Amino acid sequence: MKQDSRLARMIHVLIHMALLGGRETSETIAKMLNTNPVVVRRTMGALKRKGVVGSEGGRGGGWALLVPLEALTVLDVQRALDDGQVLAAGVSEDHPTCPVERAANAALVDAFEQAERTLLREFAELKLSTIAERAMQDAAGSQRATHLDHQA
C-alpha cells in the first residue's frame, strides 16, 4: 500500500519557511522535496485555500506563511490537505453474508475509529512550533557533537 507523505512533507516545508523568513518559491520548495514545482503548487494551493499560506506572483513572489507556527497544529495542516479520515484502511466486502467477515469488519472498524480519535487528538495538540524547537535542539546537538569530534 502506497503511503501518503504529503502531511510530513508540508510540515517540513512550513517549518523551513518559518525558520528562513516565511517566504519561498515553488521552485525552491520543489528542490527541497525532490519533486516538481507543479506538484508543490497543487499541494500548497490546498494550504492556501485553508488560509495557512498565501501566494504572490511575479518577481520576489512566492508562498508566504500566514499562520505563526505557535498557532498551527499538525491537525490544521492535515485538514488543509485532506478533510477525510487520516487512517484510510478499509474492510472486506467480498462476502457480506459471511458472519466471519462481518465480525472481522466490525472489530476492525471499532479499532480504526478508536485509533483515528486518538491520532486526531494527538495531531490537535502538536504545534508546529514544538516540532521546530525539536529540530533546532537536534541541530544544536549535532553541531556540539561535531565540534567535540574536531577537538579530540
Structure explained in plain terms:
This protein is mostly helical. The protein has helices spanning 6-19, 26-33, 37-49, 74-81, 99-125, 128-151; strands spanning 23-24, 53-56, 62-65. Strands 1-3-2 form a three-stranded antiparallel β-sheet. The longest helix is centred in the last third of the chain and has 27 residues, at 99-125. The termini are far apart. The relative contact order is 0.13. The mean pLDDT is 87.
What is this structure, in a nutshell?
This protein is mostly helical and 152 residues long. The chain contains six helices and three strands; from the N terminus they run αβααββααα.
Shape estimate: elongated
Cα distance spanning the termini? 47 Å
Classify the beta-strand content into a percent band: 5-15%
Task: Write down the secondary-structure element order.
Answer: HEHHEEHHH
Which structural class is indicated by helix and strand composition?
mainly alpha
**Helix amount, in percent?**
55-70%
Number of helical runs? 6
The count of strands amounts to 3
Strand order in space, largest sheet: 1-3-2
> What Rg, in angstroms, do the CA atoms define?
20 Å
Q: Which sheet architecture does the biggest sheet show?
A: 3 strands, antiparallel
